Amino acid sequence: MSFEYTEITDPLFVENKGQTGEDDYIMVRAKQYSHVPIKIPNWTPQAHCYTTLFKQYEQELLEAEVYPDDVWVISYPKSGTTWTQEMVWLICNDLNFEAARAESLQIRFPFLDVSLIHPTDTSSFERAKNTPRPRFIKTHLPVSMLPKRYWEVKPKTIHIRRNPKSVAVSYFFHSQGIHYRGSMDTFLRSFVREHQFYSPYHAHVIEYHELQDCDNILYLSFEEMKHYLPSVVRKVCEFFGKAYSKPELELLYQHLSFKSMRDNPTVNYKSRDPTKKGEQFIRKGEAEGWKKELTPEQIQLLDEWTKEKVPNPEQRKLFE
């Protein structure tokens, strides 16, 4: 067996899982990882949080095909993934705004591994397999769980990260819009115990930044995009060997503005549950919106969590 499965026995999780809608959560650890080119000495991957659906799709994950002309966007959830996907798709497709507005980002940029956490009519791995090339692939998988072919092929990849407090707030509202029934405080305490999908969060970010000989990966941050979008766009254009005129780039910046993204139905997915009237997918798009959303006690909880999980001062810069 390529993966090890364990139940979550944390008392807080067990006490709340029936009320919060997390009954089928489990922890999954990759047992085969020697092919991952990571610099961390004596590295052993941690278990990550999924649902019991993982067992159903583990073979499809292991055998997923990867092509040299693929373009991948990788992140921990709620790190600016959708914004990055839209930017990357347009830069790679000659700024074809008409085509971008005509087709949902979910179709243009399939989510490879969503079947591991949510029921889907069709396997998300099958959907990605049948997507016409060149494919654009989104994933939240940690380095230990990427398909083996990924490391053989090394397709062009963008990795996006975001401040943990921003991630925590955005992840709560996102989860609330789909299935989560608990309070923000309960969610945050579960989050810092690594019991939300794809957690542990810090390990995900650090492990991607500790890969070696992976010049196929360009690293970005949400905060960098928010404050220096033209600079980020230039880096991404150079990464993909693209060049555009100043007027063309101005149209791209306008298209990628928060207002434009929020008003764009092809990227701002509607809630999967029509009975829910919460926040829409693209909510506020702020770099430091957590300052308005979190209590001082919650901020302290998240800051102490980062200090505990990231003792290395250089690595901690990834979470500022």
Any key phrases for this structure?
P-loop_NTPase; 320 residues; globular; Sulfotransferase domain-containing protein; Rossmann fold
Describe this structure in words.
The protein has 320 residues and is α/β, with parallel strands linked by helices. The protein has a single domain (3-271, 280-317), classed as Rossmann fold, CATH 3.40.50. The protein has helices at 11-20, 53-62, 81-92, 97-102, 105-108, 124-129, 148-153, 164-176, 184-191, 201-209, 222-227, 229-240, 246-255, 258-262, 290-293, 296-309, 313-316; strands at residues 3-6, 25-30, 48-51, 71-75, 136-139, 156-161, 217-221. Strands 5-4-6-7 form a four-stranded parallel sheet, sandwiched between helices. The longest helix is centred in the C-terminal third of the chain and has 14 residues, at 296-309. The radius of gyration is 19 Å and the shape is globular. Residues 271-281 have low confidence and may be disordered.
Give the helix/strand layout:
Blueprint: E1 3-6, H1 11-20, E2 25-30, E3 48-51, H2 53-62, E4 71-75, H3 81-92, H4 97-102, H5 105-108, H6 124-129, E5 136-139, H7 148-153, E6 156-161, H8 164-176, H9 184-191, H10 201-209, E7 217-221, H11 222-227, H12 229-240, H13 246-255, H14 258-262, H15 290-293, H16 296-309, H17 313-316
Parallel strand pairs: 4-5, 4-6, 6-7
Antiparallel strand pairs: 1-2, 2-3
Helix pairs in contact: 3-12, 8-9
Structural class: alpha/beta
Strand content: 5-15%
What global shape is seen?
Answer: globular
Let me know the CATH homologous superfamily: P-loop containing nucleotide triphosphate hydrolases
State the CATH topology. Rossmann fold
CATH architecture: 3-Layer(aba) Sandwich
Q: Classify the helix fraction into a percent range.
A: 40-55%
The count of domains is 1
What characterizes the major β-sheet? 4 strands, parallel
CATH class: Alpha Beta
Distance separating the two termini: 38 Å
Count every beta strand, where a strand is a DSSP E run of 2 or more residues: 7
Show unreliable segments. Answer: 271-281
Mean pLDDT: 93
Q: Which sequence of SSEs, written as H and E, runs from N to C?
A: EHEEHEHHHHEHEHHHEHHHHHHH
Total of helices: 17
